[in-house]
Amino acid sequence: MNKTNGQNGSDLQRAISRSVTVLGSTGSVGTSTLDVIAHARQAYGNDAFPIEAITAQSNVQMLAEQARRFRPRLAVIGDSSHYAQLEDLLAGSGVRIAAGPDAILAAANEPADVTMLAIVGAAGIAPALAAVGRGGVIALANKECVVAAGEVFRRVLSTSRATIIPVDSEHNAAFQLLDFAQSHAIESVVLTASGGPFRTWTRESMASVTPEQAVAHPNWSMGAKISVDSATLMNKGLELIEAHHLFGIEADRLGVIIHPQSIVHCLIAYSDGSTLAHVSAPDMRTPIAYALSWPVRMHSPSRRLDLATLTGLTFEAPDKRQFPCLALAQESLRTGGRAPTILNAANEIAVHAFLGRRIGFLDIARVVARALSMPNLMDGELADLEEVLALDRHARMVANEEVLRLAA
Length: 408
Ligand SMILES: NC(=O)c1ccc[n+]([C@@H]2O[C@H](COP(=O)([O-])OP(=O)(O)OC[C@H]3O[C@@H](n4cnc5c(N)ncnc54)[C@H](OP(=O)(O)O)[C@@H]3O)[C@@H](O)[C@H]2O)c1
Prior knowledge:
Layout: H1 9-16, E1 20-23, H2 28-44, E2 51-56, H3 60-70, E3 74-77, H4 83-89, E4 96-99, H5 101-109, E5 114-117, H6 125-134, E6 136-140, H7 143-158, E7 162-166, H8 169-177, E8 186-193, H9 203-206, H10 211-215, H11 224-232, H12 234-247, E9 254-258, E10 264-270, E11 275-279, H13 285-293, H14 324-335, H15 339-355, H16 363-372, H17 385-407
Parallel strand pairs: 1-2, 1-5, 2-3, 3-4, 5-6, 6-7, 8-9
Antiparallel strand pairs: 8-10, 10-11
Helix pairs in contact: 5-6, 6-7, 7-12, 7-15, 11-15, 12-14, 14-16, 15-16, 15-17, 16-17
The structure holds NADP nicotinamide-adenine-dinucleotide phosphate (NAP).
């Protein structure tokens, strides 16, 4: 990764003229991205950020509304059963439509200057690799694709002309703070975690947590899966693995600190004793705006930070016995190879089962631990996307068996 500077009128003009594809436009990150673009059009003119393609899985109504408002060339619905409805909703709009996973992959392959990867989960792996292979600026929200495809993702990136701008607030903060020319002097990269809604709960009381309680994040408004991941601290574990692959920092220099206010997003300690911190209000539109206009900064509608209104900023070490998912992810990062792919797949199955009330909150870690303990899953390198997807499928099968056992 490299960073260049340059901020004047023509740089800004060039930045806002970029075409954008939003994969996962109907989700939390996707809608925030379109909000930032709507704001940019108000601030800089209606031709800011012309949109190539938008995609959703099943929310056909919202996809059609977005298409009528933002006028992409292409709108894709992943679930083909909604094709006819999308066709009706967009009749006469001039927007090209398509359906199915292959059409999402084709959307990722459409030429766009910036591709926002905001699909949730491993469903984003193939589109992410396609977009990275094609090149351009990749605004990376989907951390699961980096975690699951790790080395394969890095290999595709190393031969492509893509520039990754992380959108996850902690990685975006790290990207802004890291001095890549001084990488020998980086002592640690510490990601902050809010601690989620159960930070102060005992482990016993977490046994009865409901999906509604788990998705009610204290600081961030996010999709259901990442909200549950935040409540188990798996999200922070996935982020450590993501940071390892994005920034090339080894596990022993990557840390996590609980910071319930979510104002400080990342801390970088250098060997001269300096620690740099990135602070902002918890609002995803800040890193999204940064990614869309990088390396220029543009105006964004995000909440501003007012330090005088804060009652304090506090930090504490995470309790890994209370949140075993964090320990499982850290162990997977150290093990490397196939472990993060298995961790990610099993976690997706477990979170889905928890949201469907088939297993309890504490069972999520049990399902993941079970999948990671299957010795036959751990053997061998992952050579390419097909092998990543095959292992992902296999780990899901094992995790599903464990869900059935726990639910019995
Ligand atoms: N939300 C945040 O603040 C935040 C912060 C940092 C990182 N992230 C990361 O960003 C990604 C998106 O998170 P989110 O919270 O925005 O998720 P979300 O609200 O659940 O939205 C997910 C998006 O992906 C689409 N989608 C779901 N399943 C799909 C499939 N099988 N194939 C293709 N598209 C599919 C959804 O379409 P439908 O609406 O039609 O289902 C939706 O557009 C995640 O990887 C998350 O970890 C999110």
